[in-house]
UniProtKB/TrEMBL annotation:
It is a multi-pass membrane protein. The chain crosses the membrane at residues 12-36, 42-63, 84-106, 118-138, 150-169, 189-208, 228-247, 274-302, 322-342, 348-371, 383-401, 407-425. PANTHER family: AMINO ACID TRANSPORTER-RELATED, PUTRESCINE IMPORTER PUUP. The keyword Nucleus does not apply. This is Amino acid permease. One of its GO terms (cellular component) is plasma membrane.
Amino acid sequence: MPHRKPMLSLGQVVLFGLAYMTPIIVLGTFGVLAVVTKGGVSGAYIAALIAMLFTAHSYGRMASAYPVAGSAYAYVRHAIDDRLGFIAGWAILLDYLFLPMVIWLIGAAYLNSAFPEIPVWSWLLAFIAVTTVINLIGLRLASVINSVMMLIQVLVIAAFVALAIHYVLGDPTQPLWSLTPFIGSEQDQALPLLMAGAAVACYSFLGFDAVTTLTEETRDPERTLPRAILLITLLGGLIFVVVSYFVQLASPGHDFSNPDAAAYEIARNIGGDLFVSVFLIGLVVGQFASGIAAQASGARLLYAMGRDGVLSTTLLGRLGRFGTPVGGLLLSATVALLALYLDVLSAASFINFGAFIAFAMVNIAVVAHYYVRGSRRGPGDTLRFLVLPTIGLLAILWLIASLDARAITLGGIWLLCGIAWLAWLTRGFQRPTPELKLEG
């Protein structure tokens, strides 16, 4: 059976994670966050960034300890318990399975708005087919395409910010510095509103953890992955905070005719009809790049679980002629066909729930591996391996509590299905899940 070869550098891994994040999504979700936070989008992103940095630290520590594919699944499995590892993998699988579908559905919706004579399903099938073919060929091609698409995103974002600043400077009543984008217009309710916004804004950060699924294809992963994870989180967070700040200044408040398309309204106000077209191109390109990264990461998690025998080894635990997880890629493409019958809200409502459960368990895994089992309890080690992951855990629990009831309900149902499958797999929890075979 072919093995994956380590080929990715620090820069390529960071680029992959940023592409997964899709930095331009800060514009696509701006209206929704502005409504939730009452005009405090930048504050929500700062709160989300702080929470994500603690968890990013934990992911980096675990990637260094266990340089294998599988992300949260592998870390919790080795550091705590194989059955809890399964639950962590099942939770994050919710993300990885449904996120590509949501990404492609959003991209198809954008294109349909520009070309209404072409139905949404046509664009959706095109997204699925092209992205799957690129990922089947391998990461080298995906890395090159992501580089080009990231450049386009950065240029569109830079143009949007420049036009927003120009727009603000043209209004003598609007200062270039204001606290409102950080605290919102309802200061007496600022904290709960910002945390509710942060629970949604964390969707934009999904990507720093996804690169851990590329561990076995990264050069010197023990050093590269921890650095890449923190860089991705910091760079992504900086982009989100800065962009949302100037966009909020250019469009104060949170009253939009259609919050889901607020960025179109703002783009037209600050740049006219021509810039709206440029903005649309940037959004679609961003969704395509994100879809490549999301599908690749999800397929590699499925490969790790299939290689274990936790899921079907025949279908998911084997590599194709290009060294790529063919079964996982095809399963991701098949799941995405559900988007033909779903809307964005229904498909995306519980994605963050799965991520938060996995994030919480990774923070616990750091304490279990280093502080409890490894007895790393000196002053510096206590800070790194007990205090920081505990803060990360508490922040994630707060974000879970800030999710809406529908997301928690749907996420809970997904977890119950996972527990039922685990009970069958372990014959009523009487035996451990299959042993992981580490392959470099």
